[in-house]
Amino acid sequence: MGSSRAVLLPGTASDEVFISSVFARPLADAGISLVAPASRGVAEHFAALDAAWTGAPLLVGGVSLGAHVAATWAVRHPERCAGLLVALPAWHGRADGAPAALAALASASVVESAGVGAALTGVDGWLGDELRRAWPRYGARLADVLREAAGSSAPTVAELRGLTVPVGVAACTDDPVHPVDVARTWVDALPRAALRTTTLAALGADRESLGRAALAAYLSLRT
Predict the structure, then answer these.
(1) What InterPro entries does this protein's entry cite (predicted)?
(2) Residue 210, SS3?
(3) Are residues 69 and 162 in the same domain?
(4) Among 87, 103, 104, 164, whose Cα sits 20 to 30 Å from the Cα of 122?
(5) What is the DSSP secondary-structure string of 82-123?
(6) Are residues 103 and 82 in the same domain?
(7) Are residues 79 and 110 in the same domain?
(8) What is the 3-state secondary structure (H, E, C) of 39-84?
(9) CATH no. for residue 79?
(10) What does the alpha-carbon distance between residue 169 and residue 187 come to, in Å, rounded to a whole number?
């Protein structure tokens, strides 16, 4: 059974503004309302999911770190989860040198030593625009949030095998920070999962392309 609400969480040092730009319209077109908590960091994300649950199973998920947290929440509370929307998973289990974790650690060091502007030098295009908008919202917490994310765990392959809800997974085939092979590993482990792919170029031109991909994968399992 599906849910009429989706509670979706942002990636590392991203925010609810990006989540809304990716998911709000695709979900609305499917008759699902978006809840995009203004939470910051792993602990706040878990708290936001706990607060959103009112007794009926929820569709949960997010982008990158947000997807990891939502999937972990579903592992811990299977009775609370109706399904998952997983966009750009970055690793499974411990990070163990995953590109996204290494990037977060490197950014944290530069933020502390030289500031946000220096950390974003050379980050151009739509991604640079998004980070320059979102990162200042974290203020003095930014470096700590980046390090916390790099040290956090996603569900292990064994834990993913135990999740029986439908899971829509989306990945960008040209994203070295969130390798498509990681998404394929998630899908291969999950009992009920489908993968749809897009590209970073498409995401730059149309944020909703990522949301549509994850939602299409999820809806394909409900027909």
Answers:
(1) AB_hydrolase_fold
(2) helix
(3) yes
(4) 87
(5) EEEEEES---SSS-TT-HHHHHHHHHHHHHHHH-HHHHTTT-
(6) no
(7) no
(8) CCCHHHHHHHHHHHCCCCCEEEEEECHHHHHHHHHHHHCHHHEEEE
(9) 3.40.50.1820
(10) 7
CA separation for the pair 140, 144 (Å, rounded) = 8
pLDDT in tens, 150-195: 999 999 999 999 999 999 999 999 999 999 999 999 999 999 999 9
Tokens of 190: 């999950």
Taking the C-alpha atoms of residue 156 and residue 186, their distance in angstroms, rounded to an integer, is 9
What is the chain's Cα-based Rg?
16
Rounded to whole angstroms, how far apart are CA atoms 77 and 35? 19
How far, in Å, CA of 69 to CA of 60, rounded? 10
Exposure of 55 by Cβ count < 10 A (0-12 exposed, 13-18 middle, 19+ buried)?
exposed
Lowest mean pLDDT among 3-7, 88-92, 142-146, 149-153: 3-7
* 179 CB neighbour count, 10 Å cutoff: 20
Q: Is 126 in a helix, a strand, or coil?
A: helix
What tokens does 157 get? Answer: 């392959």
